[in-house]
């Protein structure tokens, strides 16, 4: 299958926008209000990731001959090992650094590693795992499971069947308003973002459109972020879907449609490859870097705060690239070789 460089560029953008947001949180009091408001859009990186995940799953999975078990096993092994490494590394760092504000409950650590949604021991009001950014992977893994189950349906009804299942779950959540962590997660409106990604993939396959149409769609998506983003309550899933998820779907559709005229930027492509590692490990690296920052109050200013954010983006990009090349990629190849023969065929967009 064709490798879509533009998908990799969007993955890099999504990961680095989240990183910039979290880095800015460490220096918010030093930044102008306008900069803080602009970086608030970094929350949308998660929603863009969800839409991209839906796109890629339908792009690579719509014609697959794999069984539901085979497909889910491959997705699990693509995500879980690096997530486990990041989660355990974060827990070890928190212990070594003496983070007394953080509670490490063995049961909740196990739930985190098994992608079981639960209320955090450290932040009891939030359904967060030990490694907080991992909350998104609870949604990802549930979507992978539903997608794998849809492979048991005839090809012609896989997409409508899966989208209908997601709509029923979300409707149930809106009507019943469940309080349990698992039910809240598995009926969240955020699931619709995966559905939108699948629909974008199918629409692009059937009617890719011309450059003018796709440029207009991309502009509409960007304007959606600019106009709706500042009003989004990131803690409210439905608000996120409308203010972040819808523009993300438009940006994805427009960008994919413009792929023929988008140049190939190898560095940005590699950052897209490394986006998963960047996303998983950025909190650990940021916490370590912040330990140095707080010890240098004499240099704190709006300018150095901006330098802090930019410098950290460079640092975590380098770390992520190294992790992808020397840890994630070799590990994934070894695991795939262990469970099945090396597959044949062309390259495809990852994750």
UniProtKB/TrEMBL annotation:
Keyword Transferase in annotation:
yes
Q: Where are the transmembrane segments?
A: 42-61, 82-104, 127-147, 159-177, 183-204, 211-229, 241-262, 274-293, 305-324
Which Pfam families does this one have?
Acyl_transf_3
Q: Name one GO molecular function term.
A: acyltransferase activity, transferring groups other than amino-acyl groups
Single GO biological process annotation from the record:
polysaccharide biosynthetic process
Q: Which residues form the Acyltransferase domain?
A: 5-316
Alphabetical UniProt keywords: Acyltransferase, Membrane, Transferase, Transmembrane, Transmembrane helix
Question: Among the entry's GO cellular component annotations, what is one?
Answer: membrane
The record ties this protein, via PANTHER family, to: ACETYLTRANSFERASE (PTHR23028), BLR2367 PROTEIN (PTHR23028:SF131)
What name has this protein been given in UniProt?
Acyltransferase family protein
Q: Which organism is it from?
A: Tritonibacter litoralis
